[in-house]
Amino acid sequence: MALKTPDPAKVRILFNQRVPMRDGITLSADVYLPVGEPARRPVILSRTPYLKSDMITVTRAQEFVKRGYAYVAMDVRARGDSDGENFHPYFNEGRDGYDSIEWCAAQEWSDGNVGTYGGSYLGAIQWLTALYQPPHLRAMAVLVPPSDPFVETPTGVPGPQHLCWLHYVSGRVTQPMEAVNWERVYQHLPLVTMDEQAGRVDWRWRKEFEHTQLDDYWQPLCYQHRFHELSVPALHISGWYDDEQVGTPLNYIGMTTRGATPEARASQRLLMGPWGHNVNASSKVGEIDFGGQAVIDLYGEIGQWFDRWLRGINVLSKPVRIFVMGENTWRDEQEWPLARTQWTPFYLHSDGRANSRFGDGQLTTTAPAASEPADNYTYDPGSATPFVTEQTSSQIGGPDNYASIQRRDDVLVYETEPLEQDTEVTGPIRVDLYASSSAPDTDFMAMLIDVWSNGFRQRLCDGMVRARFRDGMEHPTLIEPGKIYQYSLDCWNTSQVFKAGHRICVQIASSAFPKFDRNLNTGAAPGQTSEFVSAEQRIYHDAEHPSAIVLPVIPR
Questions:
Q1: Which residues are catalytic?
Q2: Tell me: the pLDDT tens digits for 497-506?
Q3: Are 451 and 457 in contact, with CB atoms under 8 Å apart?
Q4: Which domains does the chain have, with CATH numbers?
């Protein structure tokens, strides 16, 4: 996106407007207005912890202004030019969002119709605001929003790279991520004092270690069980490689199945592209170029959405638009997941030596025989299986090549024979895993991979389970060493055509570091200790324990 200086003949800016909150503090907003008639216009509100006074915001504002909207960019409480002490992410945003929307509706340049817009933090706080039912909120455009606590990291503790983000939003202005050697920081134990290694004791980081299960502390930040209270139209946008991707399809499903009214359930739209967290920024993510169609007129899509709900200009379109990777084309659909999906288990098989990509692991649609030897590996937290990613939290993972990772013996690899024809997999991915461990607590990770005919092993999506939270984040219980448990791993979503000659592959391990913290295998309180032990892991795939990855295969 090219950054543009505003043309004063077209854009009028009101800087640092003070917006009163119910507790007496004021937040700072910059208001961008079209020059000319009419005097009152619908409003787009965007509230950010990343500072409203940058050229990206200015350029974004002009995109909406040229469509005839007033655009309000606001610093959230305790950030930028807004009042407040000690930025506490998310906890004040519902109330502040309500007061900000109602302020926008009451201004002389507003016609009373307010929409909200933004991504990541700016997306999640739209949902928290909507729960307060602001009377003048007409529609939302929500990009790449985080989910409820522990949906993305079901570990009881924050992922190591979360500290990088907390560093970035420390104080009133953004801090340089690159000033810290994050690779060294992530190695620090115990996890709770990792902030010291980064050079800043952070009370927000440490507070999370006081609440390592889903308790009353986290309830104010939970919105995904409350869609039945909401009737706001929402445009849901994310990318297959967004590191917070899981929330967008969940939110779309939640609103279309549990929204407050039939009208609410019908007023949702889902848009999924071949993008990372910075959606629509480039046709290339990591080593993969998804072609000329990958970058779209996203502001046009969002503008049409607001035209529909803030102006009553209806543009007919199907409710779901997805980019199918592999074919690298866009496709419109009526629902998510797709109604024509063939949910197909691909079962894990081996003769007990599936370790590494040089082992004998196989993946087939044939259920396992009555007796099939289990696979074994040793998980050593001191030499954790890596997750391929840059070290900052800006983008965690992508369509990376896992060929080198799959040389390790603590990685089990199961793959099909080369496919005889193109095979489309579009939808949510789940792994049903039967496993035992010598430890009272441990982790199991699964990853779906497209193995190209040239040997490139493209990560598509992945997920994990922490054994103590196998029954949910509210009820942690340790496991009995040596006992077989069934685990269900949510591996999020993808849309990929596995080309003829490629192989479908699933990888099983016990760490994905530093995306997730290392389970130390001792059963101690999460994040509080440095002591760790190795765990002997066993994966079962016989008739009684049919471990499988369930793929949403789409008929061609």
A1: 120, 242, 277
A2: 999 999 999 9
A3: yes
A4: 10-143 (3.40.50.1820), 342-554 (2.60.120.260)
